[in-house]
Amino acid sequence: xxxxxxxxxxxxxxxxxxxxxxxxxxxxxxxxxxxxxxxxxxxxxxxxxxxxxxxxxxxxxxxxxxxxxxxxxxxxxxxxxxxxxxxxxxxxxxxxxxxxxxxxxxxxxxxxxxxxxxxxxxxxxxxxxxxxxxxxxxxxxxxxxxxxxxxxxxxxxxxxxxxxxxxxxxxxxxxxxxxxxxxxxxxxxxxxxxxxxxxxxxxxxxxxxxxxxxxxxxxxxxxxxxxxxxxxxxxxxxxxxxxxxxxxxxxxxxxxxxxxxxxxxxxxxxxxxxxxxxxxxxxxxxxxxxxxxxxxxxxxxxxxxxxxxxxxxxxxxxxxxxxxxxxxxxxxxxxxxxxxxxxxxxxxxxxxxxxxxxx
Length: 359
Ligand code: SAH
Ligand code: SF4
Known about the structure:
This protein is of the alpha/beta class. The chain folds into two domains: 8-62, DNA polymerase, domain 1, CATH 1.10.150; 69-340, TIM Barrel, CATH 3.20.20. The protein is 33% helix and 18% strand. The protein has helices at residues 13-22, 28-38, 53-62, 129-133, 141-156, 177-188, 208-216, 232-238, 246-260, 278-288, 313-325, and strands at residues 69-75, 81-87, 93-101, 110-114, 118-120, 135-138, 164-167, 200-204, 222-226, 264-270, 293-299, 330-332. The strands form two sheets. It has a ten-stranded mixed sheet with strand order 1-2-3-4-7-8-9-10-11-12. β8, α7 (208-216) and β9 (222-226) form a beta-alpha-beta unit. The longest helix is centred in the middle third of the chain and has 16 residues, at 141-156. The structure holds S-adenosyl-L-homocysteine (SAH) and iron/sulfur cluster. The site of S-adenosyl-L-homocysteine has 17 residues, from β8 and β10.
């Protein structure tokens, strides 16, 4: 698998400092370049006018400026959800979504970016458009950070900034572990994008080694685990690449809580006639008993494979009530951007030939 050359966004502060010091620059140059990149959101080295010209020229040759480029942006009818088709340096495309929420009970507006960590996905969940399209390659840390910077620039035009990040776009973050964590550390850095770890959620299909590693990072991010079923037979049908048992997965989740004291989120895509009965809700409740958690129900969003369907509203509510009744806190996720295929499980990074007009 060919990975692109490292770009500016691939380096953490220490690596950038080491590189510039190696070039004979004083250490403060790295701080300037970092602030240019992530506070001023410079669109090129040319725009980093506080750096000497010769340094900018050397950077441009030896550490390419990130090549994440927007090919198309679509806006949902609510005007608050936007999906960007981004072209990477090697011509591959990925999708990234910005979801804006008007002021809530706490009086604060939220601007959440939904990030991709891979072009495609190898996990093959049968109901997910990304899974249906197969795997292309891992993204680099810089390509993940580039998605955040893209929307940070757009928000800045309105005097706003990114408040939350969810790793719920294309791909499985824990299958691209190192790049995901490096990207989290960059976007979390207080001298840069300054996104609080508590406002970052990593969603996983349930890769146990990754969950165990994440528990040991000093990063209080929220872990969301996609379950989708209350038993192994059904889970293996819906998420066919996962061979471990649910008991093993939930043991890793319990250990995660024991180490981090952080409440987990479980995601459950509700699919008509598959996993949406009240009995299945009760079985799920029994599995999760005693584990501090919150369940997010996601009524299935449509994908090109029309075999799987969303349950009726009544069945969604009955499922939620059954979970509630056994003491499991549970919400139905309000989906945004379904009509522009920007909601959970709908992203697929169409090939450029079919990308259509830029809006
Ligand atoms: N790979 C990770 C993160 C990306 S998917 C994971 O699977 O958790 C983000 C969430 O969208 C997951 O919970 C996933 O199961 C859910 N999802 C996938 N396809 C969906 C669909 N068609 N409708 C609703 N949710 C879907
Ligand atoms: Fe991959 Fe997540 Fe989609 Fe499964 S749901 S195919 S893990 S992106």
